[in-house]
Specification:
The protein is built from twelve helices and nine strands. By secondary structure, it is an alpha/beta fold.
Length: about 325
C-alpha cells in the first residue's frame, strides 16, 4: 500500500472510562461517535479489533488502516486496548458517558473474565444495538471473541475472525511451557524488577528506547507509546498472561459449534503459541468450518511485518457480506 495513502486515513484517539478502567480506543475513519450519530450517512457496520496480550491498541494501527482502505473506506475500524494496558497522558481528557458513570465497576477487570466483560461493556455503551459487527480477535483476543459470543449470543455479529487463536491448551504450547512458570510463579519478581528499573527512568529515555524498538519491529508509534514501558501496564499484562496459562485449557466446542457459520479461524505454521497440531485437531472436529492454515509463514505477531497480508485475507473474505450492506 502506498505510504501517502495510509497517511491520509484519519485515526482518532480517545481515552475513555470503561467498567472503571482507563481504555484507549483508536478509531479509523471519520466516525467518532456512532452512538449519537442519527444521520443517514451513519455506517451500518463496525469492524472491531480485539488485540492479543499485551493489549496495546497502537500496535494495530497499520493493520486497521490497511483494512479500512481495502473495505473502500465505507466502515469504521476501531481497536480497543485491554483494561489496564493503557494510561492516558496527563494532558489527555478521559471521556465518560452517563452509562459508564452509572455502571458498576467490573470485578477483577484486569483478569481474563474482566477483560471479556470490559469489551462487552464498551459495545453496550458506545455502539448502537442495531449496528452490525465484524469482530477480529488476535491471539487471546480470539478467546475473548468466542466468550463474547457465548455470553451475549444476540450480538449482531455477521463475521468473526480468530487470528492465530490461543483458545486452548496455552500452557502446553511451546511458548506456554516457558511462559507458565514465569507468569504464574515468578510474577511478583517480574513486577518488582520492572518497577525498580522503569519507574525512575526519565520519560525521554523511555521514548528513545521505545522509538528504537518500534523501528526494529516496523511498528508505527503515533499514539501513546510510553505505555509499553509503564510498570502498571506491564504488570497487568503479566497478570492477564498468568490467568491465560491457567484457565485457557479446553477448547469451547459448544460455542464454536453454535456460531461456526460466522467464524473464520486462521492458524500459523510457525506459531509457538498455537502449534499446527491445534489446527489439525480443530479441523478434524469441525471439517465443515472455515478453518485455515497460513501458507505464507506469517508469525503469531503478524503486526510486526504482515499487516497488509492479513488485511488482504480478511477484506477478501468479507466481500460478499459487505456487498449486502
Amino acid at each position: 500500500m502506498d505510504s501517502e495513502l495510509k497517511e491520509e486515513i484519519p485515526v482518532h484517539e480517545e481515552f475513555i472510562l470503561c467498567g472503571g478502567a482507563e481504555t484507549q480506543v483508536l478509531k479509523c475513519g471519520p466516525w467518532t461517535d456512532l452512538f449519537h450519530d442519527q444521520s443517514v450517512k451513519r455506517p451500518k457496520l463496525l469492524i472491531f479489533i480485539i488485540p492479543g496480550n499485551p493489549g496495546f491498541s497502537a500496535f494495530y494501527v497499520p493493520f486497521a488502516k490497511a483494512l479500512y482502505s481495502l473495505t473502500n473506506r465505507r466502515f469504521p475500524v476501531w481497536t480497543i486496548s485491554h483494561a489496564g494496558h493503557a494510561v492516558a497522558p496527563k494532558d489527555k481528557k478521559i471521556l465518560t458517558t452517563s452509562e459508564d458513570s452509572n455502571a458498576q465497576e467490573i470485578k477483577d477487570i484486569y483478569g481474563l473474565n474482566g477483560q471479556i466483560e470490559h469489551k462487552l461493556a464498551f459495545l453496550r455503551t458506545h455502539v448502537p444495538k442495531d449496528m452490525k459487527l465484524v469482530l477480529i480477535g488476535h491471539s487471546i483476543g480470539s478467546y475473548f471473541t468466542l466468550q463474547m459470543l457465548k455470553r451475549v449470543p444476540e450480538l449482531p455479529v455477521i463475521r468473526a475472525f480468530l487470528l492465530f487463536p490461543t483458545i486452548e491448551r496455552m500452557s502446553e504450547s511451546p511458548n506456554g511451557r516457558i511462559a507458565t512458570p514465569l507468569l504464574c510463579w515468578f510474577r511478583y519478581v517480574l513486577y518488582v524488577t520492572g518497577y525498580l528499573l522503569l519507574k525512575p527512568c526519565p520519560e525521554t529515555i523511555k521514548s528513545l528506547l521505545i522509538r528504537r524498538g518500534l523501528q526494529v519491529m516496523n511498528l508505527e508509534n503515533e499514539f501513546s507509546p510510553l505505555n509499553i514501558l509503564e510498570p502498571f501496564c506491564l504488570a497487568n499484562a503479566a497478570y492477564l498472561g498468568g490467568q491465560e496459562m491457567m484457565e485457557v485449557v479446553k477448547r469451547d466446542d459448544e460455542t464454536i459449534k453454535e456460531h461456526l457459520c460466522k467464524l473464520t479461524f486462521y492458524y500459523g505454521t510457525i506459531d509457538p503459541w498455537c502449534p499446527k497440531e491445534y489446527y489439525e485437531d480443530i479441523k478434524k472436529d469441525f471439517p465443515e468450518g472455515d478453518i485455515r492454515l497460513c501458507e505464507k509463514n506469517i508469525p503469531h505477531a503478524f503486526i510486526t511485518h504482515f499487516n497488509q497480508e492479513m488485511a488482504d485475507m480478511i477484506a477478501d473474505s468479507l466481500k460478499d457480506d459487505l456487498s449486502k450492506m
